[in-house]
């Protein structure tokens, strides 16, 4: 049985398909952004949705990742590159192929950190970048 926020051994998470890590990272990052916006403001849901969408979009994630790249560990860089270079089953409607690939790499890193329970590292990477 699984419990909410259950963690996974680092070795198992490292061995996962990068697109699967990105699948988890997409959800974790979306929740992180939504929580950050709610804690930082008292906007109505329509405004919150617009603000969140801009940050969670492939373009927003790719721009953020460009700022984060120099701060990644070797392990995170390897996961980013696997995610960026992975064959993806879908294409982005509103971003270039390059932006979509970078955003998938970003999501893979966030997914990895989320699955291993390294929430402090997620905070360290993106907390000051959102609002």
Descriptive terms for the model:
mainly alpha; EC 3.1.26.-; 131 residues; hydrolase; RNA-binding; 7 helices; rRNA-binding
Helix content: 55-70%
Beta fraction of the residues? Answer: under 5%
Mean of residue pLDDT values? 92
Helices, by number, come to 7
How many angstroms separate the termini?
36 Å
Principal-axis shape: globular
Work out the number of β strands: 0
Uncertain runs with pLDDT below 50, 5 residues or more? none
- The helix-strand sequence is HHHHHHH
Sheet of most strands: none
C-alpha-based Rg, rounded: 14 Å
Structural class: mainly alpha
Write the layout of secondary structure elements.
Layout: H1 10-15, H2 18-40, H3 45-56, H4 58-68, H5 74-85, H6 97-115, H7 119-126
Helix pairs in contact: 2-3, 2-5, 2-6, 4-6, 5-6
Brief rundown of the structure:
The protein is mainly α and 131 residues long. It has helices at residues 10-15, 18-40, 45-56, 58-68, 74-85, 97-115, 119-126. Helix 2 (18-40) packs antiparallel against helix 3 (45-56) and helix 5 crosses helix 6 (97-115).
